[in-house]
Amino acid sequence: MSTLNDSLDVPHEFQKMLDLLSMAPKTVWEIFRYALVLLLINDEKAWVVESHVDGDTLHIIVETVEGKRFDVVKPYLSAKVETILFKWI
After folding, report:
1. Is 67 helix (H, G, I), strand (E, B) or coil?
2. 20-34: per-residue pLDDT in tens?
3. Residue 18 half-sphere exposure toward CB, CA atoms < 13 A
């Protein structure tokens, strides 16, 4: 199973943004990655194949329309941040 990072074929224009995100705190990258997966699902470019809880961690296995599968962990989000995130998606 790959990670979202392995599965992305990122257009050249977005590489600078990903480089900046790679320097951000780990929580910022985790929230960005989770938001990106929600966008893929919302746009019907991916769907949830399976999910499971491991302790306090929700793992979501996603498959893209190209057949690539990857695991994403739902990061901790305060109620306020989660509300803002879902408004934008």
Report:
1. coil
2. 888 889 888 888 889
3. 13
User: 70: closest CA among 10, 16, 5?
Assistant: 5
Q: What are the tokens at 35?
A: 């938001």
Are the C-beta atoms of 26 and 89 separated by less than 8 Å? no
Query: What's the one-letter identity of residue 82?
Result: E
* Domain regions of the chain by residue span: 2-88
Structure tokens belonging to residue 74: 């739902």
- Beta strand extents in 1-89 (DSSP E only): 2-3, 46-54, 57-64, 69-73
Full-model pTM: 0.76
